């Protein structure tokens, strides 16, 4: 009886076929698994009379080998057919990969950082949600200064009893300078890049948020001449060796004396155009010698140390460098606009 069963299964496995991997696995389980039909026959082998064991054993081995070879052949055939139906042609040229680009503001910020880093400035960072103490008070703003008013500043939390405890979105990165001066012994030479916020109407030339890079240098015997030379070096590194600068007297609560710095228009070469309002000059930053009150507020002896500070809007520098007419484009996430800066990376 067992020989008849073996012969029957042998004929079966010689003719098995499958159309997918699931059917092949089902055949493997039916014939070759621990609970399969061939294993069941091997379990019955102990009951075969001694004089038949050799013949039955040889037939069982033939059955198992045939089933194994047939199922392996089906697997290989199915694998080859699956490869032929694959849509991926490994011999063809690869599909073009669309690479992104750095944002133009990031490109310019990194360039500014690189220029000042080569002049010995190190990076400093601070929170965007700040207290009035570091944004205004330590920067020599009077308690009733209009910059504390909601017309200029976004308030997160107001304290009616102590204006210095108001929580606001910083309106300049000078707050980082204050924190550095509080915790660092001079000499200090830092640049402070970051995003700032002001309550302004959004136009082609202004936004409610923008990016700044401010610089601070505190040491003994620092002069305005040192400031002018650093800014001239920066302007020529950023806009070209022929760039000229001019300093106009101005007012900032945290510097005295103070100045606005203009550069010769990068677009018209100083001849006059619409961008520079036909003056040949474009304002790019404010600067000045650190007011002694600021030093004292931050715990630095103003009789021993002096210093200078400057601050620029990254959008303004980017506008000038890449001739972008509307700064709102920087935050609209238009991929067509951003692709124009692929070669600037």
Automatic annotation (TrEMBL):
Keywords: Aminoacyl-tRNA synthetase, ATP-binding, Cytoplasm, Ligase, Magnesium, Metal-binding, Nucleotide-binding, Protein biosynthesis. The keyword Cytoplasm applies. It is an enzyme of class 6 (ligase). Its cofactor is Mg(2+). Binds 2 magnesium ions per tetramer. One of its GO terms (cellular component) is cytoplasm. GO terms for biological process: phenylalanyl-tRNA aminoacylation. GO terms for molecular function: ATP binding; magnesium ion binding; phenylalanine-tRNA ligase activity; tRNA binding. It catalyses: tRNA(Phe) + L-phenylalanine + ATP = L-phenylalanyl-tRNA(Phe) + AMP + diphosphate + H(+). Signal peptide: none annotated. Mg(2+) binds at residue 256. Residues 114-340 form the Aminoacyl-transfer RNA synthetases class-II family profile domain. Its main location: cytoplasm. Its EC number is 6.1.1.20. It is found in: Cytoplasm. InterPro entries: aa-tRNA-synth_II, aa-tRNA-synth_II/BPL/LPL, Phe-tRNA-synth_IIc_asu, Phe-tRNA_ligase_II_N, Phe_tRNA_ligase_alpha1_bac, Phenylalanyl-tRNA_Synthase, tRNA-bd_arm. It comes from the Bacteria. Transmembrane segments: none annotated. Belongs to the class-II aminoacyl-tRNA synthetase family. Phe-tRNA synthetase alpha subunit type 1 subfamily. Tetramer of two alpha and two beta subunits. This is Phenylalanine--tRNA ligase alpha subunit. It comes from Marseilla massiliensis. The lineage of its organism: Bacteria, Pseudomonadati, Bacteroidota, Bacteroidia, Bacteroidales.
């Amino acid at each position: 009886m067992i020989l008849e069963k073996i012969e029957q299964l042998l004929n079966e496995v010689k003719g098995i076929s499958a159309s997918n991997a699931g059917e092949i696995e089902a055949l493997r389980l039916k014939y070759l698994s621990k609970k399969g039909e061939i294993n069941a026959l091997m379990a019955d082998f102990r009951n075969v009379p001694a004089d038949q064991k050799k013949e039955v054993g040889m037939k069982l081995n033939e059955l198992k080998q045939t089933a194994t070879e047939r199922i392996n052949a089906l697997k290989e055939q199915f694998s080859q057919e699956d490869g032929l139906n694959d849509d991926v042609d490994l011999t063809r040229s690869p599909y073009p990969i669309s690479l992104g680009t750095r944002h133009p503001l990031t490109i310019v910020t990194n360039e500014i950082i690189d220029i000042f880093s080569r002049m010995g400035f190190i990076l400093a960072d601070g929170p965007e949600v700040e207290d009035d103490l570091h944004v205004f008070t330590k920067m020599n703003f009077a308690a009733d200064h209009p910059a504390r008013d909601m017309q200029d500043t976004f308030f997160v939390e107001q304290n009616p009893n102590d204006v210095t405890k108001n929580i606001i979105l910083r309106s300049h990165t000078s707050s980082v300078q204050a924190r550095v001066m509080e915790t660092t012994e001079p000499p200090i030479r830092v640049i402070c890049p970051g995003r700032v916020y002001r309550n302004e109407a959004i136009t082609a030339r202004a936004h409610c948020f923008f990016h700044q890079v401010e610089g601070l240098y505190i040491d003994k015997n620092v002069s305005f001449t040192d400031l002018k030379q650093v800014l001239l070096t920066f302007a020529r590194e950023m806009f070209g060796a022929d760039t000229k600068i001019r300093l106009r007297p101005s007012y900032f609560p945290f510097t005295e004396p103070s100045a606005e710095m203009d550069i010769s228009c990068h677009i018209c070469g100083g001849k006059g155009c619409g961008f520079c309002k036909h003056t040949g000059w474009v304002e790019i930053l404010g600067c000045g010698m650190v007011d002694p009150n600021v030093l004292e507020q931050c715990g630095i002896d103003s009789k021993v140390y002096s210093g200078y500070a400057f601050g620029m809007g990254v959008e303004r520098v980017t506008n000038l460098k890449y001739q972008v007419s509307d700064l709102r484009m920087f935050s609209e996430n238009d991929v067509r606009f951003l692709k124009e800066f692929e070669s600037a990376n």
